[in-house]
């Protein structure tokens, strides 16, 4: 029993000693800080001032980047304008040289057209030419009219027919009418590819004939083989 009392006293003494030691340590800490408050935690790195400073740096950097980009764009635009101006100058020089080369040819064409037009005569409201000297097949007559700046005549109505051929009662003249279409039942104009607007056949003439061409004689229309030779009537294309 005496041993148990000794152990109990030893335990109480140890607790008292630890309590006393903790109190002394606390007083020393309060004395060193000069205050009874707990120590403050260190300030974080990202304070408002630091954030504001970083934002200013970022804005400055971004502004510099934008200025650099704008400068590069402006430089590219300037170089592009210079190249376009150089290209335009080159094209103008080439066009002037080409114009100088073409002008003599154009003058010859104008003179040739004047000569060709001089053979056409105004009859009614349009200009025509009657070949009275040389006969040829229908295709050759068509080509000759084209070379003259016109085409085989297209007759619009009976009034125009009478005006063109009023004095030509004996000769036969090819005009731009043929039955070369596949069906053989249509009389078309080679120039337009459509049915002709006017026909005046000789009375009682069977006209359902394929692959023939039309000529005019005594103000009436007839047809025969396109390979036959006849005179022809041209019409100026400018006045068609």
Features:
240 residues; alpha+beta; Mannose-Binding Protein A, Chain A; elongated
Explain the overall architecture.
- With 240 residues, this protein is α+β, with helices and mostly antiparallel strands.
- Among the domains are: 1-30; 122-239, Mannose-Binding Protein A, Chain A (Roll), CATH 3.10.100.10.
- Helix content is 50%, strand content 18%.
- It has 4 helices and 7 strands.
- The chain has helices at residues 2-33, 48-118, 138-147, 158-164, and strands spanning 121-123, 126-136, 150-152, 173-178, 212-217, 220-225, 230-236.
- Strands 1, 2, 3, 4, 5, 6 and 7 form a 7-stranded mixed β-sheet that branches.
- A hairpin with a 2-residue loop joins β1 and β2.
| Overall CATH class of one domain | Alpha Beta
State the end-to-end distance: 151 Å
User: Overall mean pLDDT score?
Assistant: 77
Report Rg.
56 Å
The percentage helix is 40-55%
What's the overall geometry?
elongated
Estimated structural class: alpha+beta
Query: What is the CATH fold-level name of one domain?
Result: Mannose-Binding Protein A, Chain A
Q: Give the number of helices.
A: 4
* Percent of residues in β-strands: 15-25%
- The SSE order reads HHEEHEHEEEE
CATH homologous superfamily classification of one domain: Mannose-Binding Protein A, subunit A
CATH architectural name of one domain:
Roll
Q: What low-confidence regions span 5 or more consecutive residues with pLDDT below 50? A: 31-35
Tally of strands:
7
């Amino acid at each position: 029993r005496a041993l148990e009392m000794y152990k109990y006293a030893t335990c109480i003494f140890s607790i008292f000693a630890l309590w006393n030691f903790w109190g002394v340590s606390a007083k020393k800490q309060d004395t060193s800080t000069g205050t009874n408050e707990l120590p403050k935690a260190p300030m974080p790195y990202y304070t408002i001032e630091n954030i504001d400073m970083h934002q200013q740096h970022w804005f400055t950097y971004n502004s510099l980047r934008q200025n650099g980009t704008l400068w590069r764009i402006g430089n590219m635009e300037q170089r592009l304008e210079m190249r376009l101006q150089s290209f335009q100058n080159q094209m103008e020089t080439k066009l002037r040289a080409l114009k100088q080369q073409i002008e003599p040819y154009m003058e010859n064409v104008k003179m040739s057209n004047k000569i060709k037009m001089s053979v056409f005569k105004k009859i009614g409201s349009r200009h025509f030419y009657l070949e009275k000297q040389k006969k040829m097949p229908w295709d050759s007559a068509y080509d000759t009219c084209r070379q003259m700046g016109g085409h085989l005549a297209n007759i619009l109505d009976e009034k125009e027919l009478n005006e063109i051929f009023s004095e030509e009662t004996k000769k036969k003249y090819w005009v731009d009418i043929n039955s070369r279409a596949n069906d053989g039942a249509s009389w078309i104009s080679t120039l337009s590819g459509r049915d002709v607007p006017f026909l005046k056949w000789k009375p009682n003439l069977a006209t359902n004939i394929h692959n023939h061409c039309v000529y005019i004689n005594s103000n009436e229309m007839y047809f025969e083989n396109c390979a036959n030779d006849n005179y022809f009537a041209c019409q100026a294309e400018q006045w068609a």
